[in-house]
């Protein structure tokens, strides 16, 4: 009996999320087959897990009494490095992302430029920061410079993609109006495009600043400077109280970033 | 817009007052000084000798990566399958945990403001900590392997899915909720018939989007021992087998592009 007939008898059933029954059941069966296959290949060493359980409890306990003191200089140096890397890489990355973003917007860039810029964006977005960091550490040596270049490179892909999307759906009438006055390409960009995308660009830059800080905490693992190296050492030495302290600091800084960026965004809009 | 008068008595229009103009200049000066200060700190910690031959190192590296050792690819199918499993199972686990958290964190569905702040703390801590850090921790606790990777991905996904979902819940239309509560429905019934149908498309979209990000993140979890293709990557890098590294890079590149395409298609179909 169809749903409508049932409903007229007072036996109402809600509409399914996927309307097509073949697709719905196909997806369900496929999901079950996948789950069975996947779970059967995941081999877990339960003895090792049981052994580690006490360590897990130690780690949770460490959050109750984090140790900021005993590794103070390492933590401070690492954080300082992370913060400087974050700031410089965001500034450089955003500055470089603007031309790439302009080039990747279909409505203002010619085909060849568009393809090149989209290519840059794809490469930069596909690889994790940490993979790029490995390559740059080989090229530029250990230290925050490699980290900064990595984060700047990742920022280019992120910002340029969102900027290009923003430019692609901007209000074209304003551009036409400015062009009608006989404005050159630069003047059109400056007076018709830039005012429309600026608030969002500032908001996104603040957001990226926040992401870059979080990322700067991991690329230290492969030697690209920042707090990651300190964190990695403390975890592998089972000094969970120091790790907990570092994690708490990271959470606090991210919260601060988010709070201030929401203020900046409200102020620009 | 401020108006001042010129010596000839004509009104002159300007975009900003003198005060605002100077404040703007000062802000720029402060920003640029901060940037230069940071740059100085970085440059002090850099060995410029290494940077000078970066170009040579880079071309050397590319030279060693090419040609890729294609024969190595057939040993990568199992790690790649593991990587996909880490991402997919991790996302599923993350969704299962994020779903209740999001309902507790949304202003209009939370049972109590205190519960809401606890849920928000969970979301923020999960979001602030990268999945690689979660993986490092879990590897020391659970031992190396796929399980640590799955849980690391799940823990990181809670924050992402939770945040976007609770924002979606806060933006729902109140009228269906009111209509259903007017029939005398209980709290859970209101959730399931009033709130859930409205956020379902957003929820599915967010989950698929996170799955796509997780594929990208799970490719590197092996660097800290949490299973997947990252283990092979780590081994290849440590043994300086750069022609194997390039095979792995290509494989990651293709996988990520395919997953991004799938996720874009699915999101397009839903919304």
UniProtKB/TrEMBL annotation, chain A:
<feature type="transmembrane region" description="Helical">
    <location>
        <begin position="242"/>
        <end position="259"/>
    </location>
</feature>
<dbReference type="Pfam" id="PF00528">
    <property type="entry name" value="BPD_transp_1"/>
</dbReference>
<dbReference type="InterPro" id="IPR005769">
    <property type="entry name" value="PhnE/PtxC"/>
</dbReference>
<keyword id="KW-1003">Cell membrane</keyword>
<dbReference type="InterPro" id="IPR000515">
    <property type="entry name" value="MetI-like"/>
</dbReference>
<comment type="similarity">
    <text>Belongs to the binding-protein-dependent transport system permease family.</text>
</comment>
<feature type="transmembrane region" description="Helical">
    <location>
        <begin position="87"/>
        <end position="109"/>
    </location>
</feature>
<dbReference type="InterPro" id="IPR035906">
    <property type="entry name" value="MetI-like_sf"/>
</dbReference>
<dbReference type="GO" id="GO:0005886">
    <property type="term" value="C:plasma membrane"/>
</dbReference>
<feature type="transmembrane region" description="Helical">
    <location>
        <begin position="130"/>
        <end position="160"/>
    </location>
</feature>
<keyword id="KW-0812">Transmembrane</keyword>
<feature type="transmembrane region" description="Helical">
    <location>
        <begin position="21"/>
        <end position="42"/>
    </location>
</feature>
<feature type="domain" description="ABC transmembrane type-1">
    <location>
        <begin position="79"/>
        <end position="261"/>
    </location>
</feature>
<dbReference type="GO" id="GO:0015416">
    <property type="term" value="F:ABC-type phosphonate transporter activity"/>
</dbReference>
<keyword id="KW-0813">Transport</keyword>
<protein>
    <submittedName>
        <fullName>Phosphonate ABC transporter, permease protein PhnE</fullName>
    </submittedName>
</protein>
<keyword id="KW-0472">Membrane</keyword>
<keyword id="KW-1133">Transmembrane helix</keyword>
TrEMBL record, chain B:
<feature type="transmembrane region" description="Helical">
    <location>
        <begin position="247"/>
        <end position="264"/>
    </location>
</feature>
<dbReference type="InterPro" id="IPR005769">
    <property type="entry name" value="PhnE/PtxC"/>
</dbReference>
<dbReference type="GO" id="GO:0005886">
    <property type="term" value="C:plasma membrane"/>
</dbReference>
<protein>
    <submittedName>
        <fullName>Phosphonate ABC transporter, permease protein PhnE</fullName>
    </submittedName>
</protein>
<dbReference type="InterPro" id="IPR000515">
    <property type="entry name" value="MetI-like"/>
</dbReference>
<keyword id="KW-0812">Transmembrane</keyword>
<dbReference type="GO" id="GO:0015416">
    <property type="term" value="F:ABC-type phosphonate transporter activity"/>
</dbReference>
<feature type="domain" description="ABC transmembrane type-1">
    <location>
        <begin position="80"/>
        <end position="263"/>
    </location>
</feature>
<keyword id="KW-1003">Cell membrane</keyword>
<keyword id="KW-0472">Membrane</keyword>
<comment type="similarity">
    <text>Belongs to the binding-protein-dependent transport system permease family.</text>
</comment>
<feature type="transmembrane region" description="Helical">
    <location>
        <begin position="22"/>
        <end position="42"/>
    </location>
</feature>
<feature type="transmembrane region" description="Helical">
    <location>
        <begin position="86"/>
        <end position="106"/>
    </location>
</feature>
<dbReference type="InterPro" id="IPR035906">
    <property type="entry name" value="MetI-like_sf"/>
</dbReference>
<keyword id="KW-1133">Transmembrane helix</keyword>
<keyword id="KW-0813">Transport</keyword>
<dbReference type="Pfam" id="PF00528">
    <property type="entry name" value="BPD_transp_1"/>
</dbReference>
<feature type="transmembrane region" description="Helical">
    <location>
        <begin position="220"/>
        <end position="241"/>
    </location>
</feature>
């Amino acid at each position: 009996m169809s749903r409508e007939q049932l409903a007229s008898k007072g036996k109402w059933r809600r509409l399914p999320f996927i309307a097509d029954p073949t697709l719905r059941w196909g997806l369900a069966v496929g999901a079950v087959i996948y789950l069975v296959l996947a779970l059967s290949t995941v081999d877990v060493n339960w003895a090792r897990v049981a052994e580690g359980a006490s360590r897990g409890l130690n780690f949770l306990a460490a959050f109750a009494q984090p140790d900021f003191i005993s590794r103070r200089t390492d933590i401070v140096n690492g954080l300082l490095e992370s913060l400087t890397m974050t700031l410089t890489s965001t500034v450089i990355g955003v500055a470089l992302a603007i031309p790439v973003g302009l080039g990747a917007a279909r409505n203002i860039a010619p085909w060849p430029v568009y393809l090149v810029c989209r290519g840059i964006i794809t490469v930069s977005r596909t690889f994790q920061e940490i993979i790029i960091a490995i390559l740059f550490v080989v090229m530029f040596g250990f230290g925050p410079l490699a980290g900064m270049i990595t984060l700047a490179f990742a920022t280019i892909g992120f910002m340029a993609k969102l900027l290009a999307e923003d430019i692609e759906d901007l209000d074209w009438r304003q551009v036409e109006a400015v062009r009608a006055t006989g404005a050159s390409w630069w003047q059109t960009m400056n007076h018709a495009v830039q005012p429309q995308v600026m608030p969002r660009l500032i908001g996104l830059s603040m957001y990226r600043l926040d992401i870059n800080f979080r990322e700067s905490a991991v690329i230290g693992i492969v030697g690209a400077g920042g707090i990651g190296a300190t964190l990695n050492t403390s975890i592998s030495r089972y000094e969970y109280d120091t790790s907990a302290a570092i994690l708490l600091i990271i959470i606090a800084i991210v919260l601060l970033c988010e709070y201030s960026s929401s203020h900046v965004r409200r102020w620009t809009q | 817009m401020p108006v001042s008068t010129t010596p000839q008595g004509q009104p002159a229009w300007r975009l900003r007052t003198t005060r605002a103009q100077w404040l703007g200049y000062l802000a720029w000066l402060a920003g640029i000084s901060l940037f230069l200060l940071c740059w100085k700190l970085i440059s002090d910690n850099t060995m410029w000798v290494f940077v000078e031959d970066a170009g040579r190192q880079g071309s050397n590296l590319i030279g060693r990566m090419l040609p890729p050792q294609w024969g190595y690819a057939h040993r990568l199918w199992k790690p790649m399958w593991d990587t996909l499993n880490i991402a997919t199972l991790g996302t599923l686990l993350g969704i299962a945990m994020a779903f209740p958290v999001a309902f507790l964190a949304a202003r209009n569905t939370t049972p109590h403001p205190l519960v809401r702040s606890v849920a928000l703390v969970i979301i923020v801590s999960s979001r602030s900590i990268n999945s690689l850090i979660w993986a490092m921790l879990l590897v020391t606790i659970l031992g190396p392997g796929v399980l640590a990777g799955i849980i690391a991905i799940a823990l990181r996904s809670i924050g992402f899915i939770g945040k976007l979902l609770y924002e979606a819940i806060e933006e729902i239309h109140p009228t269906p909720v009111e209509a259903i509560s007017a029939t005398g429905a209980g709290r859970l019934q209101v959730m399931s018939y009033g709130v859930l149908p409205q956020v379902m498309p957003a929820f599915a979209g967010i989950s698929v989007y996170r799955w796509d990000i997780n594929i990208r993140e799970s490719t590197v979890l092996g660097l800290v021992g949490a299973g997947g293709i990252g283990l092979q990557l780590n081994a290849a890098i440590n043994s300086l087998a750069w022609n194997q590294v390039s095979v792995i890079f290509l494989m990651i590149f293709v996988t990520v592009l395919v997953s991004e395409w799938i996720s874009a298609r699915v999101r397009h179909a839903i919304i």
